[in-house]
Amino acid sequence: MNKMQQLSVLIPAPLPCYDYLSETVLPVGTFVEVPFGRKEVLAVVWDKKPDKTIPESKIKKIKTVLEMPSLPKQSIQFVNWVAGYTVSPLGSVLKMVLGPDILKKSKKPIVFEHPNPDYTTLSFLPEQKAAVETLTKQIGLGFSVFLLDGITGSGKTEVYFEAVARTLKKQKAVLILLPEITLTTAFLTRFEKRFGVKPACWHSEMTPKQRRDIWQGILSGSIQVVVGARSALFLPFQNLGLIVVDEEHDASYKQEEGVLYNARDMAIVRAHIAQCPIILASATPSLETYCNALSGKYHHLHLTKRFAEATLPDIEIVDMRQKEKGTVKFISPKLKCALADTLEKKEQALLFINRRGYAPLILCRECGARLKCPHCSAWLVEHRRAGYMCCHHCGYTKPIPKKCPVCQSENLISCGPGVERIYEEAVLAFPTAHVKMVTSDTLNNRTAFTTLLDELENGLIDILVGTQLLAKGHHFPNLTLVGVIDADQGLAGGDLRASERTFQLLHQVMGRAGRANKKGHALLQSYQPENMIIQALKNNNRMAFFETEIETRQLLKMPPFGRLAAVIFSGKNELLVAKTAQQMAAVAPRDTSITVLGPTPAPIAQLRGKYRYRLLIQTEKNVNIQNIMAHWLTLFKVPSSITVRLDIDPYSFF
Ligand code: ADP
Ligand code: ZN
Ligand code: ZN
Questions:
Q1: How do residues 114-168 score in pLDDT, each as one tens digit?
Q2: 192, 235, 576, 633: most buried by Cβ count inside 10 Å?
Q3: CA 103 – CA 118 distance, rounded (Å)
Q4: Which-ligand-closest: CA of 363?
Q5: 3-state helix/strand/coil string of 318-379
Q6: Cβ contacts of residue 95 below 8 Å, gap of 6+?
Q7: Could you tell me which of 55, 69, 53, 60 has the C-alpha nearest to residue 11?
Q8: pTM of the model
Q9: Closest residue by CA, ligand 1 atom 21
Q10: Rounded Cα gap, residues 303 and 128, in angstroms
Q11: Is it the case that residue 271 has pLDDT exceeding 60?
């Protein structure tokens, strides 16, 4: 009998590699089934050296070798890299590659037709043409990063479609990443118009069969183009020739559960492994990306003109500090006038407020009690339409009480505006207008979105009241007025990116006004009109925003001028949570290039019944924060009832 081979094998579960024995030599990437505990589980032969010090008698044998193409080397390299960067177990990252039942064969697999790069052609404006040429020249020439930076409607999508076409002609595969909410039929239809067929689409609403068929189609190389949400990054491409990350600034690229990774950043690594170009597209690039473009690390492609000669809206700030007489209204008289004008001209308006529900807080006027979630440090948000109040952190829901739970008086009042309240005000002010409200509660699937676009297009809506309607690539040709109810809303709070997000969000919202050939107007209601962000928005002065923001972050050594990691401790026993956090802080590395902030109770100190503490670690840019954190986490004991989460490059600070 042959001598047994000792191999390293990785199981898609939060574990490291384990050694197994095989009768034959198996190449790295081979899919196998191995005994694990009492079960047999799927695993992949990994590129790690087996541990020869373990006696052979202690090692189990591989049960089955699966007959199918191996996991590509690039996928293995990528898993290794992501696990190292995020300081996560290798198997947790492999789990994002494999998913349940991914190797099961479908009886009738979906067939994806090949996109035709020559299906249509456009003639480009000079600026667009220059960008197209730069991009297409680079296809097939190895790794490089492009920032495709252009105002909404300037043709970014059309431009990167040309790079897609060139990649297809070179017989290579393309991955287009989009934030989940913009992955709409409209985008797929647009793709179809350009390339003759719909692309394979990877998102959270797929059936298990669709998931398997696409995954296997990519592994076998029969699928050329995937348009997908962030998890598509882990698909087993063999022959990737281009990655596009559209709306690269979007915060939803950061995965906030399981393995904490930023798909935009990891996409750059993936492109590097594939040695192919990557295009980051945005109308409002993130500060990180912008700085990389400034320093010349990324190529900067600029599109400054809107196609079809449309202009940016006129922007006006409404100073909300000037109080009017009478009852409080959230729609100012000025905005009301502008709405009336718009309706008169038979044009459409959007009222934007980034807050779901009717009011963010219910308060007792008699005793001052505020209705709070019993499981979180958060107020209960009034959802008057649905008749309940709800915690936006844990989902705790209760009917709205008639009486104050503390003093029993019937004097409960709603505090502050939510989208339902603005809707109510708009209906009262314009009783004959068609007012429609959209929130993530009502606009929660692709069909609802398509219906909304149809209604807008057919003039069935006069005033749209909404929380987030920022899907790109949608043109509302008759929408000429945007009113931002509470422009300051995002500016408060200790979030590193509060200013940046507010700028990006409001800039995009205002960009909804005045496409096509109609002049648009935007009104920003603000209580701090002299704030730098509000001013930069008003003057459409992105440079002013970037300059101030870069200066601040440089001064504070915040990303991208320094590195950050967060550690979040949580558990049911508050004292134990605090103690564990303090123990970690007590063994902090003594190094002048590292600053430890905290531990402190998290801003949301209680979430889903668990107490939370945070530590923030800030280092110089050149410090290997992963090594430090990985070592540090071994220096103290974590009781089994406490969860410790490490977040490298955190985006959420609650
Ligand atoms: P962005 O992605 O920057 O928002 P799009 O690529 O969606 O811009 O372009 C906006 C609109 O203008 C789309 O309907 C697009 O088809 C159209 N468009 C852009 N450039 C051209 C062009 N050169 N020829 C014809 N239509 C164009
Ligand atoms: Zn009371
Ligand atoms: Zn709650």
A1: 999 999 999 999 999 999 999 999 999 999 999 999 988 889 999 999 999 999 9
A2: 235
A3: 34
A4: 2
A5: EECCCCCCCCCCCCCHHHHHHHHHHHHCCCEEEEECCCCCCECEEEECCCCCECECCCCCCE
A6: 12, 13, 14
A7: 60
A8: 0.92
A9: 155
A10: 7
A11: yes
Q: CB 640: neighbour CB atoms within 10 A? A: 6
Q: Show the ligand 1 pocket: residues with CB < 6 angstroms.
A: 122, 124-125, 128, 150, 152-158, 307, 472-473
Tell me the residue type at 62: I
Helix, strand, coil in percent for the chain, rounding step 5? 30, 25, 45
Q: Which one, of 179, 206, 174, 203, lies nearest residue 191 by Cα?
A: 174
In this predicted model, which residue has the larger pLDDT, 408 or 508?
408
Q: Which atom of ligand 1 is nearest to the CA of 472?
A: 4
Which residues, including other chains, have CB under 8 Å from residue 53's CB and lie 6 or more apart?
A: none
Condensed to tens digits (0 to 9), the pLDDT of residues 202-253 reads: 998 899 999 999 999 999 999 999 999 999 999 999 999 999 999 999 999 9
DSSP designation for 489: T
Ligand 1 center from residue 468 Cα (angstroms): 22
How many alpha carbons lie under 13 Å from residue 195 in its C-beta half-sphere?
A: 31
Q: Phi/psi zone of residue 273: left (φ > 0), alpha (ψ -120 to 50 degrees), beta? A: alpha
CA torsion sign, 341 to 344 to 349 to 351? positive
Per the structure block, which two tokens stand in for 97? 């590659």
Assign 507 to helix, strand or coil: helix
Q: What is the DSSP letter of 520?
A: -
Local structure of 32: helix, strand or coil: strand
The closest of 140, 96, 91 to 236, measured between CA atoms, is: 96
> Rounded distance, CA 636 to CA 596, Å?
16
Query: For residue 535, what are the CA distances in angstroms to 4, 348, 357, 545?
Result: 71, 26, 29, 9
- How far does residue 412's CA lie from ligand 2's centre (Å)? 7
Of 123, 178, 191, 307, the residue with max ligand 1 atoms within 8 A of its CB, to mutate for a pocket test, comes to: 307
Q: What is the model's pLDDT at position 569?
A: 97
